[in-house]
């Protein structure tokens, strides 16, 4: 289970970072709308993407795992603070490209829940998981775990997009 959790976080963070890099203008717009002081610098969105990719990949190596988990915690706290500032303090409706052009959501409760679940998974893995060395696992276990982790990430994207579409197009009463 530890391997599946770590690989799920890896897939989510690496995919998020790469997809944001591939749609960098959209992500820059999100950062600007969040009115983050550091967001005025054109390099900040690139650094955030790079940090997501590095932290996700860092989970794969036992020597860097603790640092990657700390980085993920800090990023999630930063994302959570940005959502709080936008929704509660400034009462803005901001469309976020949290997964680049693969998804588009209005920052809100679903964003908070997503951040909370990822944070909870990260904390649980750091507190209660045994040490996993991906590079010494049998090949069939690695393949199965990688496919399962990709499935978890795809399922999360499908649910997120379904929820977002349901918010945008409320059911008509007949």
The oligomerization state is single chain
Percent range for helical residues?
55-70%
Mean pLDDT: 81
Question: How many strand elements?
Answer: 3
Briefly note the structural class of the backbone: mainly alpha
Spatial ordering of strands, largest sheet = 1-3
What is the N-to-C order of secondary-structure elements (H for helix, E for strand)?
HHHHEEEHH
What is the beta-strand fraction? Answer: under 5%
Provide the low-confidence segments as ranges. Answer: none
How many helical stretches? Answer: 6
State the separation between the terminal residues, measured CA to CA.
46 Å
Overall morphology: globular
The largest sheet, given as strand count, sense and whether it forms a barrel, is:
2 strands, antiparallel
Question: What Rg is obtained from the alpha carbons, in whole angstroms?
Answer: 17 Å
Present the secondary structure layout.
Blueprint: H1 2-22, H2 24-33, H3 44-58, H4 65-89, E1 95-96, E2 98-101, E3 105-106, H5 109-128, H6 139-168
Antiparallel strand pairs: 1-3
Helix pairs in contact: 1-3, 1-5, 1-6, 3-4, 4-5
Walkthrough of the structure:
It is built from six helices and three strands, in the order ααααβββαα. The mean pLDDT is 81. The protein has 174 residues and is mainly α. The radius of gyration is 17 Å and the shape is globular. It is 70% helix and 5% strand. A two-stranded antiparallel sheet has the order 1-3.
Which properties best describe this structure?
single chain; 174 residues; mainly alpha; two-stranded antiparallel sheet; 5% strand; globular
């Amino acid at each position: 289970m530890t391997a599946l959790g770590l690989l799920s976080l890896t897939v989510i963070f690496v995919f998020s970072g790469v997809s944001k890099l591939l749609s960098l203008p959209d992500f820059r717009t999100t950062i600007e709308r969040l009115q983050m002081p550091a967001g005025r610098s054109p390099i900040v969105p690139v650094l955030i993407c790079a940090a997501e990719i590095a932290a996700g990949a860092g989970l794969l190596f036992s020597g860097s795992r603790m640092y990657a988990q700390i980085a993920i915690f800090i990023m999630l706290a930063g994302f959570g603070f940005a959502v709080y500032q936008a929704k509660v303090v400034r009462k803005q409706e901001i469309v976020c490209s949290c997964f680049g052009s693969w998804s588009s959501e209005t920052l809100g409760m679903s964003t908070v829940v997503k951040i909370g679940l990822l944070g909870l998974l990260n904390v649980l893995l750091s507190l209660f998981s045994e040490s996993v060395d991906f590079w010494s696992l049998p090949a069939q276990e690695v393949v199965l775990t990688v496919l399962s982790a990709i499935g978890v990430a795809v399922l999360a994207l499908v649910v997120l997009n379904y929820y977002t579409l349901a918010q945008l197009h409320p059911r008509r009463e007949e």
